[in-house]
């Protein structure tokens, strides 16, 4: 199988015998195009690979998660401030 992945993703391989292998993409060695590739799972007897899935890394770093949370809090505070300003303005009639 083949899957488009990024360095911070993981791969999940599943066999018909119930074997699961989960590995980080950045731990797979990079090979040149003249090689036969990298074996990620050994299959025994009549066992077959039935699933291959990319697991995206949602949070890469605690600092990134904190920065995202701070940005969300700032956006919420700005929205609350705008709503309060709108409510404080008296209604005007055009004519």
What layout of secondary structure does this protein have?
Elements: E1 10-15, E2 20-24, E3 49-55, H1 62-88
What do you see in this structure?
The chain has one helix spanning 62-88; strands at 10-15, 20-24, 49-55. Strands 2-1-3 form a three-stranded antiparallel sheet, with no helix packed on it. It is elongated. The model has no long low-confidence stretch (mean pLDDT 76). With 95 residues, the chain is α+β, with helices and mostly antiparallel strands. Strand 1 and strand 2 (20-24) form a beta hairpin. The chain folds into two domains: 10-55, no CATH class; 60-88. It is 28% helix and 19% strand. The chain contains one helix and three strands, in the order E-E-E-H. The longest helix has 27 residues, at 62-88.
Overall tally of structural domains: 2
Question: Mind telling me the C-alpha Rg?
Answer: 25 Å
Order of helices and strands: EEEH
Which bin fits the share of residues in helices? 25-40%
Based on Cα principal axes, name the global outline.
Answer: elongated
Which percent band covers the strand fraction? Answer: 15-25%
Number-wise, the strands total 3
Tally of separate helices: 1
Uncertain spans, ≥5 residues at pLDDT below 50? none
Could you give a short account of the major beta sheet? 3 strands, antiparallel
What's the rounded overall pLDDT mean? 76
Query: Which strand order do you get reading across the main beta sheet?
Result: 2-1-3
What is the CA–CA distance across the termini? 71 Å
């Amino acid at each position: 199988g083949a899957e488009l992945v990024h360095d911070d993703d993981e791969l999940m391989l599943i066999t018909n015998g119930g074997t699961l292998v989960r590995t980080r993409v950045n731990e797979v060695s990079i090979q040149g195009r003249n090689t036969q590739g990298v074996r990620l799972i050994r299959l025994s007897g009549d066992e077959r690979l039935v699933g291959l899935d990319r697991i995206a890394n949602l949070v890469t770093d605690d600092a990134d998660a904190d920065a995202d949370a701070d940005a969300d809090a700032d956006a919420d505070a700005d929205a609350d401030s705008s709503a309060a300003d709108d409510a404080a303005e008296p209604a005007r009639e055009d004519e």
